[in-house]
Amino acid sequence: MIKSFDFYFDFISPYSFLAHKEIRRIEKKNSIKINYKPILLGGLHNLHDIKAPAFIPAKAKHMIRDCKLIAEKKKIKFKFNSYFPIRSLNLMRGVLVAEEDNYKSYYIDSMFDAIWQDGLNLNDENIIQKILKNLNINPKTFLLRSASSSIKDSLKKRTSEAYKIGIFGAPSFVANNKIFWGQDRIEFALDEANK
Q1: Which of 3, 77, 110, 114 lies at a CB distance of 3.0 to 4.6 Å from 120, suitable for a disulfide?
Q2: Residues 166, 27, 12, 148: is their CA dihedral positive or negative?
Q3: Residues with Cβ < 8 Å from 82, sequence gap 6 or more?
Q4: What phi and psi, each to the nearest 5 degrees, are found at residue 38?
Q5: Rounded to whole angstroms, how far apart are CA atoms 67 and 18?
Q6: pTM greater than the 0.85 cutoff
Q7: What burial letters (b/e) apply to 72-109, b meaning 16+ CB within 10 Å?
Q8: What are the chain's domains?
């Protein structure tokens, strides 16, 4: 039987999106659920004193081209978001609200697609509210809960825990206490999970 593993992600990361699409294929093929672990990538980078590739011009240029190559090879519909970087703090807090209400998977799919397939400006709260309405989620209630101290503290705690175990970027996968970094390491994590 295929075993599960952990997937650390942030919506801001296009590589997390590409990994997410691969994970959905793996889940469907193997009838398993991968453990989605939301973190705040900016906070994680700050803890490690790392500058994100998106803010280093030469790396940013390569990243856009690289993501398009991967998407094309994997047959994933992908559009580099022209509003990048998207402020993901509230979106990632939203994952925790969705987790409490048992629509985490649906929420994650919708937000990833809105950013990296539809190219929507999720820096605009009105657009976020429209997406939530389309998901039959009350935007006002959802956003109030996202701003609660318990949700804020939970995301900080999860990011801090990721840092403490040695995670420094997204996407990252953990199987049998071993960390695999990068969307191209999914198969390694899957192999490790099944040892």
Answers
A1: 114
A2: negative
A3: 119
A4: -70, 135
A5: 8
A6: yes
A7: eeeebebeebeebebebbbbbbbbbbbbeeeebeebbe
A8: 6-193 (3.40.30.10)
